[in-house]
Amino acid sequence: MTRTVRGAKVLITGAAGGMGRLFAERAVDEGATSVTLWDRDVIALARAVDELGAASRGRTRVQSYVVDVSDPGAIAKHAQRVRRDVGNPDVLINNAGIVRGNRYFWETDSGDDTRPTMQVNALAPMYITREFLPGMISSSYRAARIVNIASAAGTLANPRMAVYAASKAALIGWSESLRIELEQADHTNVRVTTVTPGYVSTGMFAGARAPRLAPILEPEYVVDRVWRAMLAGKPLVELPRSVGLSRAVRGILPTRVFDRVVGDAFGVYRSMERFTGRP
User: What value does the mean pLDDT take over residues 104-117?
Assistant: First the structure.
């Protein structure tokens, strides 16, 4: 177990705001050698670099790259720049994500909804990790970490977010497989943590209603739990605890009974009816 990221090179996607920004703050506070921010929001990214740079007081090099992670070419280009400018990261947090909701699947558009959701949520973490993983494996840094921010939606189907649920299910499957592969290949210096939170109040799920036993989570709480799990090299973080419980119940109850008890009675299947999201 490692206790801090002091001396590590950290890269975070979706880092201009929300949980990504909070992860960056933790890295700066703990004295990371460098903190690299990827995001497509130019203004928010510049503000984050200025504020984090001031907070670091010169102890941490903070730099940013404007990257649209839905573009594999942009990922490859900026990964090369990162390796040239600051070196291969020791800690990679795949945090960037998008959601399109409040519509049934047949009402969605393949170009505006399906393709970008799968590209950002499922494919981008794979492309980004593939760019940096060989360097993490061969590095002398003994506590390399990969964190993949998935969603409880990837473990429990939910109406009005079919594509989002599919993208996060794909992310979970890949992340868990990657963890096992690294362990089998004895690359134990690299640990993978998969995160499956419920709704988090970052604005991404504005308008969504919390199901019973699954309150909307504060981002600071989620980041703290994920950070500690990452440092410890834990494989899975399920927040709140009801996420793990619902997954277990889903494996026990017949499908129609589960629909009535968890989906309808606990309000899971109605939670996206008033979803608005970010503008």
Answer: 89
Using N-to-C axis directions, what is the helix angle for 219-232 and 18-29, rounded to 10°? 50
Report pLDDT digits (tens) over 67-105. Answer: 999 999 999 999 999 999 999 999 999 999 999 877 889
Residues in CB range of 279: below 8 A, 6 or more apart: none
Residue 164 annotated among the catalytic residues of the structure: yes
**Active-site residue identified among 65, 164, 199, 269:** 164
Which residues, in sequence order, are bridge partners of residue 91? Answer: 10, 145
CA distance 267 to 273: 11
Mind listing the domains of the chain with CATH numbers? 9-270 (3.40.50.720)
How does DSSP assign the chain, residue by residue? -----TT-EEEEES-SSHHHHHHHHHHHHTT-SEEEEEES-HHHHHHHHHHHHHHHTTSSEEEEEE--TT-HHHHHHHHHHHHHHT-S-SEEEE-------SS-GGGS-IIIIIHHHHIIIIIHHHHHHHHHHHHHHHSS-TTEEEEEE--GGGTS--TT-HHHHHHHHHHHHHHHHHHHHHHHTT-TTEEEEEEEE--BTTTTTTTPPPPTT-PPBPHHHHHHHHHHHHHHT-SEEEESHHHHHHHHHHHHS-HHHHIIIIIIITSGGGTTTT-----
Whether the predicted model's global pTM rises above the 0.90 cut: yes
Q: What is the pLDDT of residues 140-160, one digit of tens each?
A: 898 999 999 999 999 988 889
Tokens at 97, concatenated: 């994500």
